[in-house]
Amino acid sequence: MMVYRNLVPSGRDPFDASATADSQELRREESACAPGDGSQLVNSYAVVSYIPDPLGAFLDNMRRELAPNCIPHAHVTILPARALSVPAEEAWRLIRDRAEAFPVFEVETGDIEVFESTTVAYVAVRKGWDELVALHDQLSQGPLWFEEPYPYHPHITVAQDFDPALLWEIAEKARQLWRRFPHPRSFLVDALTFVRATADKRWLDLAQCRLSAAYRR
């Protein structure tokens, strides 16, 4: 999943269930490079943790270099996209309550890798994998549970939705760009953002909460 757009359209209640489309088909990775104004909300929600600068800004620039015309916001996905069977407000209360009991942790990024089956290039997670999986499993329970099409695999997408024949070329270009980053390649997961999809494959921020405690090395 890629989060590209971070504001709710004017006059629209982000928790308004009347705008949902329960039959919307969900996929693991969604493009936000399609035309549209992001005004038609669908019943597809996710939870992400945004990556702060300078790492986040570099990843956003990398994404633009690899996939022009997109407007990225670098993140690691905690709960992949899913339809909700309960009101969004109720889902958010469950997410917030569980997140606020989970300690802050550090994620250290690794090398550029690929998902061949879905034609995705991504930055691997070297440290923090177990914590990301544990947080995913803690949130994905009860009314938030969803039969995900793939096992949860923490990663940071940098390119997707392109000709599969270009996968290795794009992956190599991503590796070249990634080698230029001069700063530490780690970040704290200390806050979660609840996001909602639109019919034109954009994602809107709904709410944010902090994890439970300050990180200690």
If you had to describe this structure to a student in words, what would you say it looks like?
With 217 residues, the protein is an alpha+beta fold. It has one domain (17-210): Cyclic phosphodiesterase (Cyclic Phosphodiesterase, Chain: A). 22% of the residues lie in helices and 29% in strands. The chain contains 4 helices and 8 strands. The strands form 2 sheets. It has a 4-stranded antiparallel beta sheet. A 4-stranded antiparallel beta sheet has the order 5-4-3-6, with helices on both faces.
Question: Which SSEs are present, and which pair or pack?
Answer:
Layout: E1 41-50, H1 55-66, E2 75-82, H2 88-99, E3 105-115, E4 120-127, H3 129-139, E5 155-159, H4 167-178, E6 186-189, E7 191-198, E8 203-210
Antiparallel strand pairs: 1-2, 1-7, 3-4, 3-6, 4-5, 7-8
Please outline what is shown here.
22% of the residues lie in helices and 29% in strands. It has 217 residues and is an alpha+beta fold. Strand 7 (191-198) and strand 8 form a beta hairpin.
